[in-house]
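Re: your question from the hallway

Yes, I did run it. Sequences:
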Amino acid sequence: MTAIHAALLAAILSIVTVFFLSLSIMRKQQGNELMVKVSKAIQEGAQIFLRREYTIVGFVVIVIMIAFTLFGYFFDIGINWKTAISFFIGTTVSALAGYLAMWVGTRANSRTAAAAMTGLRPALEVSFSSGAVTGLSIVGIGLLGFVIVYVLFKGNPLNITGYAMGASLLALFARAGGGIFTKAADMGADLVGKVEQGIPEDDPRNAAVIADNVGDNVGDIAGLGADLLESYVESIIACIAIGISFTFIGSKLVDLPLFIAAFGIVASILGVLMVKILPVKSPQNSLNLGVYTSAAIMIIGSFLIVKFLNISFSEGSRMYGGLGPFWAILSGLITGLVIGLVSEFFSSEKFWIVKKLAESAQTGPAIVVVNGLSIGMQSTVFPVLAISGALLVSFYFSGMYGVALAALGMLSILGITLSVDSYGPVVDNAGGIAEMAKLEPQVRSITDKLDAVGNTTAAIGKGFAIGSAAFAALGLITAFIVTISNIKGEFILNLEDPKLIAGLLIGGMIPFLFSSMLASAVAKLSFRIVNEVRRQFKEIKGLMEGKAEADATRCVDIATKGAINNMIVPGIFAIVVPVLIGFTLGPVSLAGFLMGALITGFMLGIYTANAGAALDNAKKYIEDGHFGGKNSPAHKAAVIGDTVGDPLKDTVGPSINILIKLMSVISLVLAPVFARLN
Amino acid sequence: MTAIHAALLAAILSIVTVFFLSLSIMRKQQGNELMVKVSKAIQEGAQIFLRREYTIVGFVVIVIMIAFTLFGYFFDIGINWKTAISFFIGTTVSALAGYLAMWVGTRANSRTAAAAMTGLRPALEVSFSSGAVTGLSIVGIGLLGFVIVYVLFKGNPLNITGYAMGASLLALFARAGGGIFTKAADMGADLVGKVEQGIPEDDPRNAAVIADNVGDNVGDIAGLGADLLESYVESIIACIAIGISFTFIGSKLVDLPLFIAAFGIVASILGVLMVKILPVKSPQNSLNLGVYTSAAIMIIGSFLIVKFLNISFSEGSRMYGGLGPFWAILSGLITGLVIGLVSEFFSSEKFWIVKKLAESAQTGPAIVVVNGLSIGMQSTVFPVLAISGALLVSFYFSGMYGVALAALGMLSILGITLSVDSYGPVVDNAGGIAEMAKLEPQVRSITDKLDAVGNTTAAIGKGFAIGSAAFAALGLITAFIVTISNIKGEFILNLEDPKLIAGLLIGGMIPFLFSSMLASAVAKLSFRIVNEVRRQFKEIKGLMEGKAEADATRCVDIATKGAINNMIVPGIFAIVVPVLIGFTLGPVSLAGFLMGALITGFMLGIYTANAGAALDNAKKYIEDGHFGGKNSPAHKAAVIGDTVGDPLKDTVGPSINILIKLMSVISLVLAPVFARLN
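Structure:
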């Protein structure tokens, strides 16, 4: 069996599993009429949003495809209609996987709520199945698309990088648009509902609540999926692009990443089965068991694959081979787990950090915000050390190729890790539906229990997404440098070179500017939603008393339009800036630029994700009855803290991941052009 | 006249001017008994703090001196007792200048308040004279110390870099300690006074008010002075260290920076006179006139100096000379002004950005905080572009030497820019004294007018401090690389090298960790002050009614102890980490580490400074009667925003400046050691 066959088979296996999982979800009870109604509203909102988003992005996609094709018509340096097709397939794959995940997610939510009426375990099963649909469809469809492109264009890296760029472009818009949507709706709902009117979360009188639930699906499911799909295909492509620079196509250096990816899917499916079959009581343990099972299988499998392929190759004057690639893969895999654990430590209310943070809320909102930001900053330490360590280890054992392999190692069991991450929003939605459908309190208490676990897995997932983005970007930057060196014969990147330093500085600034765009977009949009909700409370008579219904579609509509309008500028910006730098300052500055963006982007990503999660969980900790509990001054301060953290953790942070990847992959695709500039 | 004579003469001229300025201040009226009493309390608090701070730092200084001396005893690579002596002189000079500035500042405050009873112009004169004492004593004493060290050790760069390290070490402790003190006191005072008790700022019933005023002096005067003194001497030393690598001592490349520094002092004194003599009505215009006069004189002077010296030299294969060095100096000077203007634009209530921010406070504290942070992030764009531009221009015209010259160009007129910056805290104090001594409202209105200008100049000053720190650090990193190359013969810093990348990542993380340490220290300490002020309001009978006095010394004492305890760990940390990286990962990683810290440090510095200033001024704008004015919901939200911004702009941001410089200068001093590691 060749490597490409293995990859194809694994992709199909994954998609078949997704089919059966979806079927099993759709067969479940949907619950009572009200639940179905709420769920329908969420489905419609999410569908409308995604459709509009894809339409807008479609224009950008077409423009870029035309550009590639025209370019190929005038210049013969490898960028042409084939790149355009690859690119198109990349966008399609990402859109498809995102849509599918959202489709199932918005249908699993009421079913999870219904299952929660019968117990914790059934609710976990439905919601986790939905998560697994996301996880396995992302890796399955992502790998399938890659196989198609790879076979179509015979593995020519100049063409297949277009595939990564397509996935990346769509991911950026999905993450930024979805992120703005979800947080503007969430903040808008909270600011009027919890802070001004004093009504609980997910109260149907609040017009923004449906929008908030829609946001969970388009942001946390479709957005996260697109993000990781991108990292996943990029880590495969980076391995191949670097591998090919040493060797001819079809050799073992190209086979290895394909076998690893294929085996990773198998390991992930086994992990998913583990969660579904083993009757572990605690949901957290059950999910952990799935991840660790897959990780263990993956370690054994990659050891055997490396052993079996018996690769040896040279880079510069050094020889690599033996178990070298295995150590590189292992270092990546471990780094992924470490970053996840660190995120959990800094953001879970189980540990003293969040408890202390909650305690400090007693001094008021300013102090809790400062402390929350400070926790986020502090949380960068271990992920940076872990990534740096993996970098040094993987390079030591397998050179530049090893660095790309480490990224792949980290992402190899994405199927299971993503399944675990994306079960959270489903339970969150289920809780909302339980509230809105006025189910019995014990149902809500079951979904709350699952939701608490979901918050932790979400924090871990975010850490994992950032870590893998950094590693994937590193792989892409390396591939960019290798590509330019191969064309120019020599490509000197000296840290003393002011062009490189200027690039580093400008690149380092970009994630700050980008963050600022997104954060202020959320603030602006949430302001509009606040006004709408306030208006409804004022103008709709009997709303507060529960005699009239809130007009939820208006809020969904405002959030949809606002999010889509506000994602365009940062999106275009991310595409244009690296191209501009490449053309004006040249490839040396561009290399520095990408590295600078990676450095600050990685820090900001972890900082915002963990600061936001810590603030969120500090609020939850107080709500559990500590430091005065709900409606105490400490709680009010913590709610403000949470609201500050919201756009940081769910809009800014996740979008930065993609920013650094997208800018790197665009540079890689255009590397043949930049290499020919003087 | 040789260059070193010119420098000596200019330094003495500066110190003589300082003497006469101080005399003129001390001759002014001190005001009534109550004013004298308050001023005394501030003087004592500041004195006690500085004395304790210097005592603690003294221990660190002695340990480092012993280490250098012992090292010289065992190894003969140029680091020895001479380095120790240079280092000691550096610390002494910084301590002396800081103490002098604080001494005059705490005596000018009541005199400014007294002068404000007679009008705006007299108040401006006293406070600006005090600012000029700071400005001119920093450059005068800084340059004098340098001349002494230079003559003592015959310009050997291995020894004179110790001087910069000494100044840097003291600056770090002064900035971090002073910054923690001032903001913990300020936040503590505000949280209880303004938020809980609803009493005005600077109300004497608030026990933390004196501590707050003490903080202005130890943080904003002594701290800022030490910060810029460091940048100033480092930019001179970087020029000389790089210049010497091309040439023998005493040549024109070494003369040029000395002449520029000397002439810069003359230009600054002329600018100071301009402010004092020309009777311009608007204080802002008067100050601007001073700065622009000095800048114009400096441009002409440096043109003539470069023309007259007629330097030509080669670096690598390129020849430089003619007016090249002049363009490098000019690019630095302009960059300094640009960064200042950008800071003003993003943080002054005159412009729409802050007005919009104030408007958004109507939606509540969370939104105003998010928007404030977002403004800070956005404000990084132009400073980065300006610095990158100056870097490329100065390198184009004069190579690596040009980059160091640009830093010096920026700092050449430090005498006047620092005078303008450090007049602010004096007026701020004067306003506080006017309030506490219950002077007539029009006195307070005059000091408020001057204080508003002071806020703007402070923001500009902070921008300038960060910009110059980045440039100075860049000069030091370059000198570090040049030194290692000279010793090793070859020092390859390739961006592809994982050791370099790991260094970049770890370095990039350090400013985040450091910021987190300082921010949480402020939060913790302000919590303690809050409790103390609350306790006094509860336990001291008649305090609220004004019948009993608050115990201000308790708060000063808590702030002093807390600040000193909390500055030790980050201080030691900044010293130890680069040494650790150098020894474990080697010089390649260390170079990456320094550059990574520079990149994120620069961004975080600008981000925190401008976010904090914008939030502060948005609050002021609302207090001026917009969006509901004082005590409106918008105002309450803005006060929370301001309190979040406080530790960012006055503790975190300024300390990062020094962090990146200190780590760079330590690496430069120890470069001969690292170069000999394998």
